[in-house]
Specification:
It is a single chain. The chain is α+β, with helices and mostly antiparallel strands. Among the domains are: 172 residues, Glutaredoxin (3-Layer(aba) Sandwich); 219 residues, no CATH class; 92 residues, 3-Layer(aba) Sandwich (Glutaredoxin), CATH 3.40.30.10. Helices cover 49% and strands 12% of the residues. The strands form seven sheets. Strands 1-3-2-4-5 form a five-stranded mixed beta sheet, with helices on both faces. Strands 19, 20, 21, 22 and 23 form a five-stranded mixed beta sheet that branches. Strands 13, 14, 15 and 16 form a four-stranded antiparallel beta sheet that branches. Helix 19 packs parallel to helix 21. The longest helix has 19 residues. It is globular, with a radius of gyration of 26 Å. The model has no long low-confidence stretch (mean pLDDT 94).
């Protein structure tokens, strides 16, 4: 049977590649993708536009679809009175960023599904998020909203037009920013604010819901490195361990869920996002370095994240998938939860008792029904204590306990694989791949695991071979790839994050091809997105589809902003290459947002990381030696094991080639036939360190003086 005739309804989304849009292709709503056809029809028929923005793994998007978009009566009203447009926020982050900002400004909150009503010329006049299918206490139902807006469109058009004009003008004025300077005390003020927000009992910041926000932890790790303040490191370690113990971590299949609905990290929102895996892996690896390997759970958790991504989120060609849904079979979390009876049926009595004890599995369950709040009889596995503590309490050797749990986990994992899996959103996004490339590269370097480095290289190769569009003499990165189709001109985040990934790969492999790739994306990022007059990066390039307002993003939310990462990458590349123009652009970008950073420093953790690197003491380290020489390898390993977030590295195995990028490579070669390390701090250099023992002595002396 033809795929188009299997369903009662089929709309224009059937021709799209986005898994999210395809989810709605058989709704009775006559959806259109974002495009001129929809807007032209709205103008021709004089109808308002209903714009709905979401993503494939969004739980409340599924709820609104089931309640409203599959409801034939609601669909009939929409089709008669509106032109309905669906947008995948992950495919079109520019559209999402614009209308989300408007929604937040009008209502004081945002989220997905994002609901926008606007005129045929894309001017919004009403915004919201999820609306139930019926009026619910003080919350208006979706049909009520639809009817009120149709009435206003027909009878109060002048008011709507004035509202459109006022909204757009307000936001056009609001996004104007006056550059200023950050003072050196901003890092201390940010730290003190984190200290105030820190939950000393359960880790993390604030109450519930709790988000991982790894860039906050990465900032605190750097603050610890600068100041040697042990409290900064303690906050990071407490948070990372608490998250690893909690239900936000998938103890059976690995990887992290999106966020915790409670203060204790026990009950997650179950979707898994690639960007969370990337940013959390970076935090766990850096914390492993900063604690000098004293807490094995940090490296272990990073490795488990990498295991999950390699196993479940990697395309056969090397690209990395976007997300996994929270829902399966119509229920959030069903794939991930367990009944006590199921555990006992799968395991022998001793193993079942041990697993239930360690992972807090109870006969009545610990997972509550979302609607009624009653226990469901199902459990989210989580650790109520560390394995070391449990081993002591049970009189078991720690390593014996771990070994037993590893066997149990494998049994449960293979059983769970037989369940109906949540949807995997298998589109490949350049920006999120860039983040994961950076994480894999750092993991490969620090954990000395070539498998992670190879994964980073394969993903970068995939982007370069499958997501670059060549037109004449120019090459443009594309944002999305799926099912053989690469499309949508890339945004700032794509260029910034891929440049970050390529730069981390260079720091790991010292392959000049990766350095050239990082430079290419940095240069193209500046050419396409940097507004020379304003001193800031636009979200969209000048030749991208124009929207009603230009957007510049700096807030570091679920992931760091493109401006923050751009400033960080340019600061690091600028120091390594002694390229002042890169550093100047990084400085101007930071200055552009200085007033906002002063008001709300904890909202700009990644930008503060860029500021810290650009204006603080940094080290430029060049290793002269052959990459396959054992002494050179020892030096590389020594540096990889050190936590040196304020350093950049290069390997000088071919002075003539490297000197094309780093001028001093022409005269900083190996001495006396030994691998030699050159350490410079802000362009002032120490005496060359000949051999690995000299470097070890230097690092030890720096530790003594608190300078590394």
């Amino acid at each position: 049977m033809d795929s188009l005739t299997q369903h009662r309804y089929t709309n224009a989304l059937i021709h799209e590649k986005s898994p999210y849009l395809l989810q709605h292709a058989h709704n009775p709503v006559n959806w259109y993708p974002w495009g001129e056809e929809a807007f032209a029809r709205a103008r021709q028929e004089d109808k308002p536009i209903f714009l709905s923005i979401g993503y494939a793994t969004c739980h409340w998007c599924h709820v609104m679809e089931r309640e409203s978009f599959e409801n034939e009566d609601i669909a009939r009203f929409l089709n008669e009175h509106y032109i309905s447009i669906k947008v995948d926020r992950e495919e079109r982050p520019d559209i999402d960023a614009l209308y989300m900002r408007i929604c937040q400004g009008l209502t004081g909150h945002g989220g997905w599904p994002l609901t926008i009503f606007m005129s045929p010329d894309k001017q919004p006049f009403f915004a919201g998020t999820y609306f139930p299918s019926q009026n619910y206490y003080n919350r208006p139902g979706f049909p009520y909203i639809l009817e009120r807006i149709v009435h206003a469109w027909k009878h109060e058009r002048a008011k709507i037009q004035e509202s459109c004009r006022a909204i757009v003008e307000h936001f056009r004025t609001a996004i104007v920013s006056s550059p200023s300077e950050l003072d050196s005390g901003i890092l201390d003020r940010a730290y003190r604010r984190y200290e105030e927000l820190f939950d000393s009992q359960y880790g993390g910041f604030g109450t519930q819901p709790k988000f991982p926000s790894p860039q906050n932890l990465l900032f605190l790790l750097r603050y610890y490195k600068r100041t040697q303040n042990p409290s900064a490191l303690a906050m990071v370690e407490r948070t990372l361990v608490a998250m690893r113990h909690g239900g936000i971590f998938d103890h059976i299949g690995y990887g992290f869920h999106r966020y915790s609905t409670d203060r204790e990290w026990v009950v997650p929102h179950f979707e898994k996002m690639l960007y969370d895996q990337a940013m959390l892996a970076l935090a766990y690896v850096e914390a492993h370095q900063a604690t000098r390997g004293s807490n094995p759970v940090l490296a272990q958790t990073a490795e488990e994240i990498f295991t999950y991504v390699l196993r479940d989120m990697t395309d056969s060609a090397g690209g990395l998938y976007s997300a996994e849904d929270a829902d399966s079979e119509g229920h959030e979390g069903k794939f991930y939860v367990w009944s006590a009876d199921e555990i006992h049926a799968l395991l022998d009595a001793e193993s079942a008792a041990l697993f239930c004890l360690v992972y807090s599995i109870h006969p009545n369950g610990n997972f509550h029904d979302e609607a009624s709040g009653t226990l469901t009889g199902y459990n989210i596995p989580y650790l109520h204590s560390s394995l070391e503590t449990i081993a002591t309490q049970q009189g078991i050797e720690y390593h014996e306990l771990r070994a037993k749990l590893a066997v149990i986990r494998e049994t449960l994992f293979y059983h769970r694989e037989q369940r109906v899996r949540p949807l995997r959103d298998d589109k490949i996004l350049a920006d999120w791949n860039g983040l994961m490339i950076a994480a894999f590269a750092l993991g490969g370097r620090v954990l000395d695991n070539a498998l992670y480095t190879q994964a980073a290289e394969r993903a970068l190769t995939f982007l370069l071979e499958s997501m670059i569009h060549t037109h004449g003499n120019s090459q443009r990165l594309l944002h999305r790839y799926r099912d053989g189709d690469a499309a949508i001109p890339a945004f700032l985040d794509d260029y910034a994050f891929v440049a970050w990934g390529a730069f981390e790969l260079y720091q790991t492999t010292f392959s000049l091809s990766h350095l050239r790739t990082a430079i290419f994306f940095a240069d193209e990022m500046i050419r396409l997105f940097f507004d020379e007059c304003k001193g800031v990066f636009r979200f969209s390039a000048a030749d991208n589809e124009p929207l009603i307002l230009d957007i510049t993003e700096a807030y570091d939310g679920a992931i760091p902003s493109g401006n923050s990462v751009a400033a960080t990458v340019l600061a690091r590349l600028g120091k390594l290459l002694s390229k002042r123009s890169y550093q100047d652009i990084a400085a101007r970008t930071i200055q552009h947002f200085a007033q906002e950073i002063h008001r709300y420093p904890t909202g700009f953790a990644q930008m503060l990381i860029a500021y810290d690197f650009l204006y603080g003491k940094t080290q430029e380290i060049l290793i002269a030696g052959h990459p396959h020489d054992s002494e050179t390898h020892s030096i590389i390993r020594l540096l990889a094991e050190e936590y040196m977030p304020h350093a950049v590295f290069a390997l000088n195995s071919s002075p003539r080639e490297l000197a094309q990028y780093i001028e001093q490579a022409a005269y900083q070669g190996s001495l006396h036939n030994h691998a030699t390390t050159y350490v410079c701090e802000n362009a002032v250099c120490y005496s060359p360190l000949i051999g690995s023992e000299a470097l070890q002595a230097f690092l030890s002396s720096q530790h003594t003086h608190g300078e590394v």
